[in-house]
Amino acid sequence: MQQSTFEKIYEVVKQIPYGQVATYGQIAALAGNKRWARVVGYALHANPDPDNIPCYRVVNKEGRVSDAFAFGGGNKQIELLKEEGVEFINGYVDMKKYQWERPIY
């Protein structure tokens, strides 16, 4: 059975470690197509299992959270990340410190 694009995205998002974040583009590339960044956003907005697919760990390349975070808005996303120890500088995730270092093949 072939995985759908959303399933590929969810599999990558599940791998983001506790206390770290990844970018939409990073998830897109790891899921198979670096041009899927916008699709990653759609997939996360339709997340069927937020308890097991930590979509709140995905931020934009500058480290900004989504105002349209589907599970409580940007403030909820910030709250969830802070609970994991992720620090923010002027409202942005400190990407040098918290970006997931998973290599892209």
Can you tell me about this structure?
The protein has five helices and four strands; from the N terminus they run αβααβαββα. The chain has helices at residues 5-13, 24-31, 37-45, 73-83, 95-98, and strands at residues 22-23, 58-59, 88-89, 92-93. It has a two-stranded parallel ribbon. It has a two-stranded antiparallel ribbon with strand order 3-4. A hairpin with a 2-residue loop joins strand 3 (88-89) and strand 4. It is globular and about 40 Å long. The model has no long low-confidence stretch (mean pLDDT 90).
Largest beta-sheet characterization = 2 strands, parallel
Q: Structural class from helices and strands?
A: mainly alpha
Instruction: Please give the CATH architecture.
Output: Orthogonal Bundle
Using the CA coordinates, give the radius of gyration.
Answer: 13 Å
**N-to-C terminal Cα separation, in Å?**
23 Å
C-alpha geometry: globular
Average pLDDT score: 90
Write the SSE topology.
Blueprint: H1 5-13, E1 22-23, H2 24-31, H3 37-45, E2 58-59, H4 73-83, E3 88-89, E4 92-93, H5 95-98
Parallel strand pairs: 1-2
Antiparallel strand pairs: 3-4
Helix pairs in contact: 1-2, 1-3, 2-3
Summarize the structure.
The protein is mainly α. Helices cover about 40% and strands about 10% of the residues. It has helices spanning about 5-15, 25-30, 35-45, 75-85, 95-100; strands at about 20-25, 60, 90, 90-95.
Q: Which descriptors apply to this entry?
A:
single chain, two-stranded parallel ribbon, 105 residues, mainly alpha, 5 helices, two-stranded antiparallel ribbon, globular, 4 strands, Arc Repressor Mutant, subunit A
